[in-house]
Design goal:
- This protein is mainly alpha-helical and about 450 residues long.
- The chain is built from 20 helices and no strands.
Length: about 450
């Protein structure tokens, strides 16, 4: 990090501190609404973040800046004097959120992923800074049609405002950058906007500050440069999936945020990876529909967005690497994540519906169920070849390991728990096990170019 970089870091830290102090002054002097002050900080933080690609060429000073700001946010949250003083800019709104930390993580990850591409860095940040703010303001003032989500006051009016703001945040920069045609820029704007609209409606606890920028980046990277026919077909797939989810709304134990989350994930996977990458998620959706159909309605537990996030977070990492590198073999750990999650769901159902079933039988049956999600993508990619057999064997081991680990580590399987520790435990197990699939692939093919998988 150069002296100039250090000066820029100090300048940005001073600007951020000054912004918080100024907003606190206005908050006390003008008695502004807490939500308005928080959103003003949201916009100001985005404006400061937009300067990063113009100020820095290396990620090192950006990482230093991110750590310093995260430390400041932690102090505002935990130090009593700060929390009751300038910390009221963020914490006068009484709701649980880790949004400020997600915001900082997004800035750092976007800078790393974009590799100096100012358009790919700026658009997701613009959406995050502006669309979220306008959605909150419109929703608070005019929101009447509330989403089916307990404890979260999001409305369809706010979601619509988010879409319109996000559309202009995407369309105008893409059009001015002249990296695609005029019609294509409209379709890119519409395609990204419907995705982030779903993300805003789904994510809560501040998770939208992380989900929206990363998913926006993946879509932009994949969509810019495509012709209008392909872009239109992607949007048509989204509309079809959204219609299906809407019709399925009363037939599944999913709150609106979970339905929105499942829809946006399916759309991103289809757009970034194509039909081949969508096979495993669509198969899991079909098996879940059969599972729901066989479960009495009185035994339903209404699932929220974290349940969807648990099932997609590990696979989203592999999808992001694929968006960066276009390495086909990354489909293996991606599909394995869905297979492992399906096996875990099957394992709990067996423990609940077949009391006393031997552990070996339950694990074997659940693993076989999970492998159904992996078999089709592997065969579609490699055909009936020795390579496909070896890849499938690696995926089998990965799914089996995940199922055994969950059986050993998750208490009270027969109760089919849906608490937070269960979701975290499942996510970590699946993420770790999925690395076995890619490891076995390159273990027998020593040609892995690590640089191709990194930004």
């Amino acid at each position: 990090m150069t002296v100039v970089d250090l000066l820029h870091v100090l300048l940005l830290l001073a600007a951020a501190a000054g912004m918080i102090a100024g907003l606190r002054f206005l908050q006390r002097r003008r008695e502004l609404e807490p939500e308005l002050v928080r959103k003003m900080f949201h916009v100001g933080g985005g404006i400061l973040g937009l300067t990063l690609p113009w100020l820095f060429d290396s990620i090192v000073p950006v990482a230093v800046l991110a750590v310093a700001i995260a430390g400041g946010f932690l102090a505002l949250r935990t130090v009593r004097t700060l929390r009751t003083g300038v910390g009221q800019v963020l914490h006068a709104v009484h709701r649980e959120s880790i949004g400020e930390f997600g915001y900082v993580a997004s800035l750092l990850l976007l800078f790393w992923l974009a590799r100096g591409d100012k358009l790919l860095f700026s658009i997701p940040l613009l959406i995050l800074a502006l669309a979220d703010t306008f959605a909150a303001m419109i929703g608070e003032q005019y929101g009447r049609l509330l989403l089916r989500q307990e404890g979260v006051g999001k409305s369809y009016e706010g979601v619509a405002a988010f879409f319109l703001t996000a559309f202009f945040c995407v369309h105008v920069p893409v059009l001015l950058a002249e990296r695609t045609g005029r019609l294509e820029s409209l379709l890119v704007g519409a395609g990204v906007s419907v995705m982030v609209m779903m993300a805003e409606a789904a994510a809560w606890w501040g998770l939208d500050n992380l989900v929206i920028p990363l998913f926006s980046y993946m879509l932009l990277k994949s969509m810019i440069g495509r012709d209008a026919v392909v872009l239109a077909s992607d949007i048509a797939f989204f509309l079809t999936l959204a219609l299906f989810m809407r019709l399925w709304r009363g037939k599944a134990p999913l709150a609106d945020d979970a339905l929105f989350g499942a829809t946006l994930v399916g759309y991103v996977i289809w757009t970034v990876g194509g039909w081949l990458w969508a096979l495993a998620p669509l198969t899991q959706l079909a098996t879940y529909a059969l599972l729901v159909r066989a479960t009495p309605r009185e035994n339903w537990h209404m699932h929220r967005f974290p349940a969807v996030l648990t099932h997609v977070a590990a696979s989203a990492f592999w999808l992001l690497l694929y968006a960066q590198s276009r390495e086909p073999s990354l489909l293996l750990p991606f599909a394995t994540c869905y297979g492992a999650n399906s096996a875990i769901m099957g394992l709990m159902r067996l423990e609940a519906r077949v009391p006393g079933i031997p552990a070996r039988d339950a694990i074997s049956i659940a693993t076989a169920r999970g492998l159904l999600l992996v078999l089709v993508p592997v065969l579609a990619q490699s055909g009936l070849t020795i390579r496909a057999g070896l890849d499938f064997a690696g995926c089998l081991v990965a799914v089996y390991v995940a199922t055994v680990a969950f059986y050993r580590l998750q208490p009270d399987l027969a109760a089919e728990p849906i608490d937070t520790p269960r979701w975290i435990r499942q996510l970590l197990i699946v993420a770790a096990a999925s690395t076995i699939a890619i490891g076995s692939h390159y273990g027998s093919m020593p040609r892995l170019d690590v640089q191709s998988l990194l930004p």
